[in-house]
Design brief:
This protein is α+β, with helices and mostly antiparallel strands. The chain contains five helices and five strands, in the order ααββαββααβ.
């Protein structure tokens, strides 16, 4: 019982009192389905918007990346972007001398100069050597570099 002597449920939202109790059962059921559909649609829209936001953030995070590479067994392999051959040779020299292995290198443009970051099996001294080598090149030189991933 809903307090008015009817066993029909009270519909909240846009339908009030007499209007809700005047609806036949089949219309009330379709209205309830409409409410469920609106909630599902809102959930799907939220998921789609979050996916788009993550995609945009992913693209923007790589927008200033000049190149990325990986050190394995003393060698350097370019994964993404462009890198001048002279810079690749210099990076390979550091990798060979420092015996870099299982290290991922990322070079990004930051305030008009290249910024080097690395993850993996690398210490601060080795990272500084890579920064010194990359720092000899300007962003424009790296962007028009010959070797492409």
């Amino acid at each position: 019982m809903n307090g008015r002597g009817s066993s029909r449920p009270v519909v909240c939202g846009t339908m009030h009192g007499a209007l809700a109790s005047a609806l036949p059962n089949f219309l009330l059921a379709s209205h309830e389905r409409l409410v469920i559909t609106k909630h599902v649609s809102a959930s799907v829209m939220l998921i789609v918007l979050l996916a788009l936001l993550l995609a945009v953030l992913g693209v923007l995070s790589r927008a200033n990346e000049l190149f990325a590479g990986r050190f394995d067994r003393g060698g350097f392999r370019l994964l993404r972007g462009r890198c001048p051959a002279a810079l690749v040779r210099a990076i390979e020299d550091v990798a060979r001398l420092e015996r870099l292995d299982s290290v991922t290198l990322s070079v990004r443009s930051f305030s008009g100069s290249p910024r080097v970051t690395a993850t993996g099996n690398i210490d601060d001294g080795q990272l500084q050597q890579l920064r010194n080598v990359v720092g000899r090149f300007e962003v424009a030189q790296i962007r028009r570099g010959g070797k492409r991933a």
